[in-house]
Write a structure and sequence with these properties.
Distance between the termini: 32 Å
Number of strands: 0
Number of helices: 7
Structural class: mainly alpha
Order of helices and strands: HHHHHHH
Radius of gyration: 18 Å
Length: 155
């Protein structure tokens, strides 16, 4: 289900970063090169894929019990799929707000990765820093990932 709304969620992440960054530019009153360049029509989804995937995995870890099928309620017209997608979208919005508050550099990194994609070194560096930031936010998720990765590689 998360895969089906991947593009929509990535666009929402980009818009949230854009809005946050524009607000910061207005507050400090300094026009940056990124602020000038960030008016783009689209971006390569792969620049934010790992970031999205880590938030999606954290959602599944935290909310697995809320994603189980439920007995329909009399007045509830949502299917299980609609209910889970609504939960995912809300979680993602809330998580972006939380991440932006805890790590104010994340909006800039999202925009830099999207605006200056590989092979631009600015975008590559932003992707690497974004991966490190999300790794620090979800250390238990990365510990599980590393454990599974080691098992797959026979370590």
């Amino acid at each position: 289900m998360q895969h089906d709304v991947y593009g929509e969620v990535l666009a929402e992440m980009f818009r949230a970063a854009l809005s946050t960054y524009r607000s910061a530019v207005r507050v400090v009153g300094i026009q940056t090169q990124l602020a000038t360049d960030m008016n783009i029509d689209g971006f390569d989804h792969r620049t934010l894929q790992s970031f999205h995937d880590m938030i999606a995995a954290q959602f599944r870890m935290e909310c697995w019990d809320k994603c189980l099928p439920q007995i329909p309620k009399l007045l509830d017209r949502l299917t299980d799929e609609e209910r889970i997608l609504k939960l995912w979208r809300g979680y993602c919005r809330d998580e972006m707000d939380r991440l932006f508050q805890a790590n104010p550099e994340i909006p800039r990194l999202i925009l830099t990765a999207a605006v200056y994609p590989n092979p631009d070194t600015r975008g590559i560096e932003a992707e690497d820093m974004l991966a490190l930031a999300i790794r620090n936010v979800y250390p238990e998720l990365h510990a599980k990932y590393d454990e599974l990765h080691d098992c797959e590689n026979g370590i």
